[in-house]
Structures are given as C-alpha cells and as structure tokens.
Write a structure and sequence with these properties.
- With 263 residues, this protein is α/β, with parallel strands linked by helices.
- The protein is 39% helix and 17% strand.
- A hairpin with a 2-residue loop joins strand 9 and strand 10.
- The structure holds adenine.
C-alpha cells in the first residue's frame, strides 16, 4: 500500500485528479491511499493568511513557514498514534530538486513511509521550511510551473501505475517505455485499414515469435531515431545488436548515432 498526503493551498486542483481513472481504481483496490489537506487550515490568524510579501521587497508573495510546520506536525502526531514506525518522507516539488525519473518512481512505489508532498505556490516558500524540515526537493523537468500540485500528481501517477494490480495487465507496466529504457513499439487496433493506411502484415500473421521480434525491432528503431542517448550506454543482447545493425542499414547509417548528435 502506497500512502500519500498532499499539503496544498489548492485542494480542488488535486482532488478531481486523484478521484479518477487509475488513481481511483488503485484506492478502491486498497493499493493506494491519498489524502489532501488544505494548508490554510493550519494558519493561526482569523483571516487564514498563508502567504505574505517577501522581506527585502520584490514582486510576488512567499508562503509562510508556520502553517507548513503546523501541518507537518499534525501529520506526525496523527500517524505516530495510528501506526508504529509510520514515519513520513517529506517531498518538496521544486525546479531546484533532484530530477524525477522512472527509477525515482519505482522508489516511491516501494517506499514504506508515508509520502508527504508539500506543494509550494507563488514566488516560493519561506526558507525556514527547508532549514527546519529538510524536505527532499524533486524536479519533474527543466521548466517552471506555477506550483507543486501538478508535479506531485505526476510523481504519484508514475509510481502508482507500477504497483502490481493497478493496470489491468500485469505485463503492461513492465513492457512499456523505460521499463527497460526503450521507447514503445507502434500499436494498431481494428479496423485493418484506416484512411488507406494498413496494419503491418506480421501483426495479423498469428506468428508470436515473428511478432515479438518485429516489436523489439520497432522499439529499437524508435529509440534509435528519437532518443539515441538511451541506447548509448546499455548492454545489448546479441539479438538487439543484430536488429540494430539492420536498422542502421535501413536508416542509412553504419552505426547508431551518438548522444547529442542529430538523430
Ligand atoms: N514547481 C515549479 N516548477 C516545478 C518543476 N519543474 N518540478 C517540480 N516542482 C516544480
């Protein structure tokens, strides 16, 4: 069971997402628990102010430290009482964080501690949150979003689909992109012809070995074309090496392109 807490000033931004589709199913099956808390509930003043102007001046607002400390303390109190050893793992989505990857998603799936996503907004959060709570900062990519809510959902989604039993077919999560660092092979479904475009013959052949080999080759081809960097440092099986030689010949090159070169 993966357990998550999302601390946010915008609970309505995350609730609809966690109550749909796979995240909903995972919760119904008892494989996932997600709780959403409004940081405003942990403010101390009558107007429930959660942000303020930055010391030193400048544009934008800064999220106050105290409500965040209080929310995390409330969590600690609650879970110490409910389950022994239920420590928290505090995550702070931030463009300054360690890059989120498929490996990271696997680690979140396997985490025994409760995952607490601390969602920042506005121009940032009071530095004393970092100093006092030492959250792990995690980035979902080199671009700036308006807050940590979408990154928290991205991380939860990527981890949840790796829990056995969440996807219909237990093979799906493994056979897809990145499980072994290859992009997907092309998929087709009925009908056999759409706008004059047909389905590759081999997929209609019923020859499982030929289909497996074709899919492997097309996954390698797609990776070779679009993300050659993923092929660079991996150990290739004899079959993969042979398929890649064929692809390189078909694509009009001698050897797979190197990382950084144009694909
Ligand atoms: N908050 C704002 N931008 C972000 C990013 N790219 N990753 C994680 N958290 C963020």
């Amino acid at each position: 069971m993966m357990r998550c807490e999302i601390l946010t000033l915008f609970p309505d931004m995350v609730r609809p997402v966690v109550s749909q589709s796979m995240l909903k199913r995972a919760q119904e099956k008892g494989l996932l628990e997600v709780r959403v808390r409004n940081l405003r509930d942990y403010t101390l003043d009558r107007h429930q102010v959660a942000d303020d102007a930055p010391y030193g001046g400048g544009a934008g607002m800064v999220m106050k430290a105290e409500p965040i400390f209080r929310a995390v303390e409330a969590l600690r109190r609650e879970y110490r009482e409910s389950a022994p050893g239920s420590a928290l793992r505090l995550l702070l989505p931030s463009p300054q964080g360690r890059p989120f990857t498929q490996r990271f998603a696997e680690a979140l799936r396997d985490e025994r501690r409760r995952l607490v996503f601390l969602c920042g907004h506005y121009e940032g959060i009071d530095e004393r949150v970092r100093l006092g709570l030492a959250p792990e900062e995690v980035s979902i990519g080199d671009y700036i979003l308006t807050g940590g809510e979408l990154p928290a959902l991205v991380m939860i989604d990527a981890a949840v689909r790796l829990i056995p039993g969440v996807l219909g077919d237990p093979e799906s999560a493994q056979s897809e992109s990145f499980a072994d660092s290859l992009l997907d092979f092309p998929q087709y479904t009925r009908p056999p012809e759409v706008r004059g475009l047909t389905v590759p013959e081999v997929l209609l052949s019923g020859n499982h070995e030929a289909i497996r080999r074709w899919r492997r080759k097309e996954a390698l081809r797609s990776t070779y074309r679009k993300r050659p960097d993923l092929l660079r440092d991996r150990l290739l099986s004899d079959e993969d090496r042979r398929l890649l030689d064929d692809i390189a010949r078909e694509e009009g090159r001698e050897t797979p392109v190197k990382c950084g070169e144009e694909g």
